[in-house]
Design goal:
The chain is mainly α. The protein folds into two domains: 279 residues, no CATH class; 33 residues. 67% of the residues lie in helices and 0% in strands. The protein is built from 15 helices and no strands. Helix 1 runs parallel beside helix 7 and helix 3 packs parallel to helix 12. It is elongated. The N terminus is likely disordered.
């Protein structure tokens, strides 16, 4: 069977995970400095682009993904390790979603400086900082690494006290966003593998399916984009089996050749991506748990340039936290009209 249209292997509408080159600590600090120099903020206080609607949508998608994966387990379908992480730890994800909704008041969000350009234009600058940290650490939360990242950023551009307090919640928001993107892929890939299994069963007349001819079975896939997971599952089910399914493998080889790849490469790539997804989802879930347990008061005071100034030649450090916080709030109010 021939396909005269340019074949697609991966459907194009999935959002890419928040994952870039994994940086060493020194390289991460250099990136923080470059980011601080590149980020431009608006000069007026504005509501900007709201984060909460996207967070709520992400929550709905993640809940649907959890339910779909739980049904697959109940129906005894095989799932990937990344899917197991999502299902086994969904209570942590649910807790993060509730905390974000509780800790992101509109008035507080409005006062955060917003980015004036770039792909995150209109979002808070600190959201861009959190996005970069998550992308270049593969969603792995390490308090000391984060402290040095924020400190390096502030060597070029100071963050406001409000932004420092917002680091925790924006990290949560970015991790939820990333998990939603990973979950989309997990669910779609599982559905593609199930579709490939159904097709293989019909071609082979197995698992209670009535056997049909390859020409009839493949008709609906002629001009449709194919998922990588679908291709890999079909190849693994049909390779080295009954010669009657060879026309299917020939058709698949033609599609892959036209796309500049082959079955072996697709299998390698799919297994590699499953391994990468497992690491990323594990990092996201683990980071969510650690963020909830972390002492953010100590973190903010350790990176606050205001605290650093107030500690010099005063007894500021000897005051209790509530008193120190009163000082910081007073400085915020003074700075707001400056």
């Amino acid at each position: 069977m021939k396909n005269n249209q340019p074949p697609n292997i991966i459907l194009p509408d999935l959002e890419e995970p928040i994952r870039a080159e994994l940086f060493s600590l020194e390289r991460l600090e250099q990136h923080a400095e470059s980011l601080a120099a590149a980020q431009i903020i608006t000069t007026v206080v504005s509501r900007g682009r709201p984060l909460l609607p996207r967070v709520l949508e992400n929550g709905r998608v993640l809940l649907d993904s959890y339910r779909a994966t739980a049904r697959a387990i109940q129906d005894e379908y095989a799932i990937t390790p990344a899917a197991e992480w999502l299902v086994d730890n969904f209570h942590i994800v649910d807790e993060q979603l509730r905390e974000i909704q509780d800790d992101l008041p509109i008035g507080y969000y409005r006062k955060l400086p917003k980015l004036a350009s770039g792909h995150l234009q209109g979002y808070p600058r600190v959201y861009g900082v959190a996005w970069a940290f998550v992308a270049h650490t593969d969603s792995r939360f390490d308090p000391e690494v984060l402290r040095r990242f924020v400190a390096a950023y502030q060597r070029v551009q100071p963050l406001t006290i409000g932004e420092l307090w917002a680091v925790a919640i924006t990290l949560r928001v970015v991790l939820v966003e990333n998990l939603r993107r990973m979950a989309d892929r997990i669910v779609r890939s599982r559905a593609a593998r199930q579709e490939a299994d159904t097709l293989a069963d019909r071609l082979l007349g197995s698992n209670g399916q009535a056997e049909i001819l390859p020409e009839s079975a493949l008709r609906r896939f002629e001009n449709a984009p194919l998922e990588r997971a679908f291709v890999v599952q079909l190849v693994q089910r049909l390779r080295d089996l009954d010669p009657k399914v060879r026309p299917v493998l020939v058709w698949l080889d033609q599609r892959l050749t036209a796309a500049g790849t082959n079955a072996d490469e697709m299998v390698r790539t799919e297994h590699q991506q499953q391994g990468t997804a497992n690491v990323s989802v594990r990092n996201i879930i683990t980071s969510m748990r650690l963020i909830s347990e972390f002492d953010w008061q100590q973190f903010v005071e350790s990176v606050s340039l205001v605290d650093e100034i107030l500690r010099n030649d005063t007894d500021f450090a000897g005051m209790d936290f509530s008193t120190r916080d009163i000082y910081r709030h007073a400085i915020q109010e003074q700075a707001r009209g400056s």
